[in-house]
Structure prediction request, 247 residues.
Amino acid sequence: MTNPFSLQGHRALVTGANAGLGQAIAVGLAAAGAEVTCAARRAPEETLAMIARAGGTAAPLALDFTDPMAARDVFAGKGYDILVNNAGIIRRADAVEFSEADWDDVMDVNLKALFFTCQAFAKELLAKGRPGKIVNIASLLSFQGGIRVPSYTASKHGVSGLTKLLANEWASNGINVNAIAPGYIETNNTEALRDDPDRNRAILARIPANRWGRPEDIAGAAVFLSSTAADYVHGAILNVDGGWLAR
Prediction:
């Protein structure tokens, strides 16, 4: 029986693959057999080394999503059939003090760039009549409001909505569009929360699994949504949160 979770023969692009969730996802896809392009602003040398040590295949690609159209010419003729939109940034300030620059910077990277990267990827698949998988990285703040992160919350609500809209438009063409909503994961984006004793204690008290997530906890979900095992999954937002939303 063919392994429905195997990604042998597939080519994936993972954005923000130099660290954190993107690094873990890139390593996970490579371990499942995919040829992975690790896209990031900074050279993803550590990610490439991890994949090489595991016997996988990967290559770097410089992409800076402060230009939301950075990926417009990436996919043509390259054979990609998996896209993971992980690149994202966060800015923290009270809503009454939040700046226009911090609003625009986050929305450009987290939402505008994600949409136009999906568009460029799907145009190539549709032109070739090929199926493919898109996995967007949403957030618990696709469902909740959060505190002191207005543009991040707005962008992640937008990721959830775009995931569903694109699934509606492209499902009949064999393009699956889904998202993962990570819980509280040990990454650079959550360092400020973990360094605040009161916030850290309150967060842990709400998580039934009684721990912060690790980037590797997201990799398996990304492999699943990228595989033939998820062929009938369209427009789903998969929570990987230690039970946070069930509480």
Summary: Residues 12 and 82 are 4 Å apart (CA to CA). The first strand starts at residue 11 and ends at 15. Strands lie at 11-15, 35-40, 57-62, 82-85, 132-137, 175-182, 237-240.
